[in-house]
Design goal:
Layout: E1 2-8, H1 13-25, E2 31-37, H2 40-47, H3 56-73, H4 88-96, H5 108-119, H6 128-138, H7 147-162, E3 170-173, E4 176-179, H8 184-191, H9 200-203
Parallel strand pairs: 1-2
Antiparallel strand pairs: 1-3, 3-4
């Protein structure tokens, strides 16, 4: 049975769609899925990137594409009242709901409930009253604002970055990383044993020399 780790942040509509589509995308395969909340903005900061919602034309396109993909996949999806928002309370809540002995690994029900809190209904995702009600519904075993939970979220994020993750959702299996909603067919092919993943197309891609590098200052 394949062991897959899914690195997610509830701020990402692509992570939400991938999460919702997973059962269909991997139908018939034998696998175990672990969900690990991570802070997407920390990944962006580490790699010196802007998020899609921080580039005005890309922001517009992202929201249109997300709603189109949801329509195509038959997944209910509504934009929250404002985006981006601060996802920390939701990420910490998810971590606080982790089962005993599995720190930083909330189950699918918890992740589904939080994703749908954000991406269904069009309400404000970070509204304190809604977050309070969500917390009461999920009844976390730990204090979402406690030091242990905060440290675990940081550890989840740092571990994902150390493995090469740069965005969400990222699926990790056998040391390989598959990024994004559109990587699900690729992940399925790998799990089915496609020999392509042992070919030079996969193994040599990271060895391609950099021809020119743009200065980060924009000069």
């Amino acid at each position: 049975m394949a062991q897959i780790t899914c690195h997610i942040d509830f701020i990402s509509p692509y992570a939400c769609l991938a999460f919702e589509h997973l059962p269909e995308a991997l139908r018939g395969l034998s696998y175990s899925m672990t969900y690990r909340p991570v802070l997407f903005v920390a990944m962006l900061k580490h790699h010196g990137q802007l998020g899609p919602a921080e580039i005005a034309p890309k922001r517009d396109w992202t929201y249109r594409q997300v709603l189109w993909q949801a329509h195509q996949l038959g997944i209910p999806c509504d934009m929250p009242r404002s985006h981006p928002f601060n996802p920390l309370p939701l990420l910490r809540l998810a971590v606080a709901c982790s089962p005993e002995g599995l720190p930083g690994q909330p189950n699918r029900y918890v992740c589904e409930t939080i994703f749908r809190h954000v991406w269904r209904g069009g309400a404000e995702a970070s509204d304190p009253a809604r977050v309070e009600a969500l917390t009461a519904q999920l009844a976390p075993a730990q204090d979402p604002q406690g030091d242990a939970v905060k440290a675990q979220l940081k550890a989840n994020t740092e571990a994902a970055i150390a493995k090469g993750a740069f965005g969400v959702p990222t699926f990790e299996v056998d040391g390989k990383l598959f990024w994004g909603l559109d990587a699900l067919p690729m992940l399925r092919a790998y799990l089915l044993g496609d020999a392509w993943f042992e070919s030079a197309a996969w193994t040599d891609a990271a060895q391609l020399p950099v021809g020119i590098q743009r200065p980060r200052s924009g000069a």
